[in-house]
Fold:
Amino acid sequence: MAMQYNRIFNFSAGPSMLPVPVLERCRDEMLNYRGSGMSVMEMSHRSKVFDEIAVNAQRLLREVMGIPDHYKVLFMQGGASLQFAAIPLNLRKNGRADYIRTGNFSTIASKEASKYLKVNIAATTEDSNFDHIPAQEELALDPQADYVHICMNNTIYGSRFSYIPETGAVPLAADLSSCILSEPIDVSKFGLIYAGVQKNIAPAGMAVVIIREDLLREPAPDLPIMLDYKLMADKDSMYNTPNCWCIYVTGLVLEYIRSIGGVEEMARRNKKKADALYACLDESRLFHAAVWPGSRSMMNVTFRTGDDTLDAEFVKGAAERGMVNLKGHKKVGGMRASIYNNMPYEGVETLISYLKEFEAAHPAK
Ligand SMILES: Cc1ncc(COP(=O)(O)O)c(C=O)c1O
Structure:
C-alpha cells in the first residue's frame, strides 16, 4: 500500500515513521476536519470540536495502555527533555533521588536533576560504554529517595530494561520515549511515566506524562507554571495553548494501534522484527550487535563491523537501496537501525538481505 507513495524505509531514531493510514487520514482531513470547515491546525483549542479530539486522544491512550484510573495523563510541551527538570521540581520532598545511568538520556536527566536535588547514581554501566543494563541486585537504592529514575529504552546505545526495577515504597519514574506503545506495560508499577511523542506516538513537539495521583502536590512557589503537574492535571493539559496537531495525530495513531489488535499485536510484530535482525547479526562473521543479549532493545538495534570505513560503506549502500538513517550515533559509532512500531517487517527483511549481500561481498581476510 505504501508503495504507491514511493516511500523509503526510514530507520531514523526519531522523528520516525508514522502509519501510512494515519498520514492518509491527516491528508484527507487537512483542509476540512469532519465538516468543521477548517483544519485542526486552525482550530481554537477551546472549541468544542477540538475538545473532542483531546478527550478522545486521552481516552484512547488510557484504553490502549491500560492506564489505571488513579493516574493522570498530561500532554506537555518541551519534549522529553523538559521532563528532566519537571520531575525533580515536582517530586522532590526529601531532596534526594536515585538515578540509574544506562546511556545518554539517563545521564542528561541525572545532570539536570542535580540542579534541583541531590542525585545518587544507584548504578551505571558507563565503564563498558553502556553495553548492558544492570541487574536488580546491582542497584544501590536509597529507601529515603524521593524517586528512582530510569530510562527504559536507551535510544542511542540500543539497550533496554527487560525488567521493571523493584523500588519498594519509592516511586519509579521512567523515560519511555523510545519504547512507549511498543509492548504491553504494567503502568501500576510506576509512579510516573513520560515520553517524547516523536517515535511511536506522533510528530515531534509534545511529551506524554502519566502520573499517579498521589504524586500531584501543591507546587513550590518558584515552580514555573508550565512545569506544574498539578496545574496541568487540573486544567486537562490546557492551561495554555497546547500542541493541538500533535494531540490530534496521537489520537489517530492510537486508533490505528487499537485497530490492529492493540499493544499486544504491536509487541508481536516488534518482536518478530527484532528477533530476525538480531539472529542475522549473531550469525554474521562481519557484523556484531553492540549490546549484551539480555539487554537488547526491540526498538533500536546497534551493530558494527569494527571497521569505520566498512561501516560508512554499508550506510552509503543502504541509502542507495532505499534504507536511510542507519548511521549510528557518534557516541557509539557503527550502525543503528531504529525499528519502531511503524517500521514494516519488509523494512527489516530488506535490511537483512543487504546485510547478507554486504557480508558476501566482503569476505573475512
Ligand atoms: C530515551 C529518550 N529520552 C529523551 C529524549 C529527548 O527527547 P526530546 O527530544 O523530546 O526532548 C530522547 C530523544 O531522542 C530519547 O530517545
User: Anything to note?
Assistant: Residues 14, 79-81, 105, 151, 155, 175, 177-178, 196 surround pyridoxal-5'-phosphate (CB under 6 Å). The radius of gyration is 21 Å. The mean pLDDT is 97. DSSP finds nine helices and 14 strands in the chain.
